[in-house]
Write a structure and sequence with these properties.
Blueprint lengths: L24 E4 L4 E4 L2 E2 H7 L2 H10 L5 H13 L5 H10 L5 H12 L11 H26 L13 H10 L5 H14 L6 H11 L4 H12 L7 H12 L5 H10 L17 H17 L3 H17 L5 H11 L7 H22 L26
Antiparallel strand pairs: 1-2, 2-3
Bound molecules: carboxymethyl coenzyme *A.
């Protein structure tokens, strides 16, 4: 083993391994560029709504006004949850984290779909859209139920981002708040063969159904090295507490080989372009609310981590500050990632179904062979 990488023609963690072809997303880790279907993330995040980007990901082209209006209406008409899914949330909310509840609720959506095993693109597309619409409702309902508040039904007059904020907080967001949420959803929507997307594609490659694929995605996203980092970032900022404590905190963490959450990336070796955009929004937002504390701590962590390890912030680093400014509870940070990434997962699922081959890699076996078999009564 050399530097954690086995030398038998493969890489631990599949680092740098190309595991398939895709037309959905280009991540240029060397130059810090990101494109959805060929369009730069800078253009998309400043000009498009989440619905527009979801259309782009699912349909492969940007919608014209008429197409977008139809798609937005279609998505908003799919936001309501079947009664039995609300009952499941009522049953599990106080026993689970929101990611666990989301995983359970999404899996249960299959029960309300008579076309669950439908094998045509039309079925898969309809199921993908339905889940994009419903993830936000599930997370908001979880929050309201878990905090013993009345659920707030979706408002079809609001866009996806604004409606999510409304369903969580019970208040209609300002235009600036809705735009910040929208931008955050756009930036999290897609990121090529990241762990959760790849896992969802593996599920699809067995010709399993869309609900199983999305449930797979949630389970994989939940981990602290992936989407779980989002929530961990704010907990870390809270644990540090002030700009003065950043330096000793980071040094202590590094000396004990603890990870600084929201820092580092497998593919980006330069600044994550999503973090660059979110940093500006977090700064603007913090100035507007008059609370610079979290931003200033984060900014200092960024500088210390670059000096110590030459590592940059990733997409999760500044988003938690924006969520905090939007009045969203910390425990929803990772589920918000899922609310957005479901559109990327759905696009990849469609692509995988459309040109499928079972994903079944090999392993490099390092255990023994031809051991002498010992009958059970003779074993020590
Ligand atoms: N804090 C401290 N050291 C780090 C960090 C970090 N966040 N990230 C990487 N390193 C160090 C690591 O200790 C190692 O150092 P050395 O060579 O001295 O032993 C070196 O950088 C390479 O680390 P690695 O684990 O081989 O790199 P990786 O490509 O497997 O890790 C990562 C990528 C994202 C898992 C990692 O950077 C990390 O754990 N970050 C913190 C968790 C996080 O923010 N995750 C969100 C990722 S982006 C959004 C998403 O995909 O969900």
């Amino acid at each position: 083993m050399v530097n954690g990488k086995l030398s038998a023609g493969f890489k631990k963690g599949l680092e740098d391994v190309i595991a398939g072809e895709s037309k959905i997303c280009k991540v240029d880790g060397k130059r810090g560029r990101l494109y959805y279907r060929g369009y730069s993330i800078e253009d998309l995040s400043t000009n498009c709504t989440f619905e527009e980007v979801t259309y782009l990901l699912l349909e492969g082209k940007l919608p014209n006004r008429k197409e977008l209006a139809r798609f937005t209406k279609e998505l908003s008409s799919m936001r309501n949850l079947p009664k039995y899914v609300v009952e499941i949330l009522e049953e599990v909310a106080h026993r689970t984290t929101p990611m666990e509840a989301l995983r359970t609720a999404v899996s249960s959506l299959a029960g309300g779909d008579k076309d669950v095993e439908g094998i045509t693109t039309d079925y898969h597309l309809a199921q993908g859209k339905s889940m994009v619409a419903k993830f936000a409702t599930i997370v908001a309902y979880y929050h309201r139920i878990n905090n013993k508040m009345e659920i707030v039904k979706p408002d079809p007059s609001l866009g996806h981002a604004a409606n999510f904020l409304y369903m969580v907080t019970g208040k209609r967001p300002s235009e600036i708040e809705a735009m910040a949420m929208d931008q955050d959803l756009v930036l999290h929507a897609e990121h090529s063969f990241n762990a959760s997307t790849f896992a969802a594609r593996i599920t699809v490659s067995t010709l399993s159904d869309m609900y199983s694929a999305m449930t797979t995605g949630i389970g994989v996203l939940k981990g602290p090295l992936h989407g779980g980092a989002s929530e961990a970032v704010m907990r870390q900022l809270q644990a540090i507490g002030s700009v003065e404590k950043v330096e000793p905190y980071v040094k202590d963490a590094l000396s004990k080989h603890r990870r600084m959450m929201g820092i580092g990336h497998r593919v980006y070796k330069v600044y994550d372009p999503r973090a660059r955009i979110l940093k500006k929004t977090a700064e603007r937002f913090s100035k507007a609310t008059g609370d610079m504390k979290w931003y200033n701590i984060a900014d200092k962590i960024e500088r210390v981590m670059f000096r110590e390890k030459k590592l940059y912030p990733n997409v999760d680093f500044f988003s938690s500050i924006i969520y905090n400014g939007l009045g969203l509870p910390l425990e929803l940070d990772s589920p918000i990632f899922a609310i957005s990434r479901v559109s990327g997962w759905s696009a990849h699922a469609l692509e995988q179904y459309g040109d499928n081959r079972l994903i079944r890699p090999l392993d490099y076996y390092t255990g023994p062979i031809d051991l002498k078999f010992i009958p059970i009564d003779e074993r020590k």
